[in-house]
Amino acid sequence: MKILSAPMAGFSNYAYRELIRTLGGADIIETEMVSARSFVELELRSNEYPSRLWGVQDEPNVVVQIWDNSPDTLEEFTKRLVNDFHVGGIDLNFGCPARQIADKSESGSYLLKFPNRIGDIVSRVVAAAEGKIPVTAKIRLGCTIDSINAIDVAQAIESAGANGVIVHGRTASEMYRGNANWEAIASIKPKLRRIKLYGNGDIKTVKDALEKIRNYPVDGIMIGRGALSKPWIFSQISAVLDNREIPPEPTDSELNHIIKLHYELLRKQLLPQSAILQLRKHVCYYVAGKTESRQFRNAISQTNNPIDFFNLINNFLNSELL
User: What does pTM read for this prediction?
Assistant: First the structure.
């Protein structure tokens, strides 16, 4: 049973991935989705790479999620990721419902309308990977409730030679509203002969994770938004699966340490003020549910000065101990 850390735009950068890796428990950690076209155009124009690839070359077994609708561009990008970046895997995004991806770029979840086209793309990427790394694809149940076709799409992905398919249990039109349909995810498993099926959606607690693992025929689970407030959730789930004692929720002192570690990891890439801007949205998730957290979130949103920011952190977490 594999536990996957999801690709999340604006969150799954180098620092977040390293934090997850440090806290432990995740078997597979993915980057934010990276535009294949941006990579190719940036390199041609200025010999630079998209910022979302920062740190990838130094990470062990990191999976890069990529998107586009051009088989040629995705093939070229894949060859570079395999041979020059030495990544641990590639995940193709066919699930993003964001307007700029699905509608304007006719990529992501837009492609769910065309299972054969998805199959062609996967086939080209698998060939470009040359068997050196696994290739997976992330999808949704379909574009709309009236056009659910995840089985057809998953079968096309399997026939194209991929190693696995990750299914988010909502349609593109639902975005993140309502509840993920795990029954629909489960219905795909009997239709697959070889590849792994991973389920994604609405896993916010250890209890949620175990309920999905025990009740649905999946080979693993992917956790995204549920890990933003608890990046240590992977270690807790892993402990249960290994029959070990579940690590407790971090104390305020330990949370303070996690926040400072996160800042140090961000500083490897960013200047102090930019690191604080990135960190404060994570901290808002970390303190959710704590006493007077709303006032605290309002306070930290007013500063990008590291000294002021950490004074607020220290005062808030110390007050939580009283």
Answer: 0.94
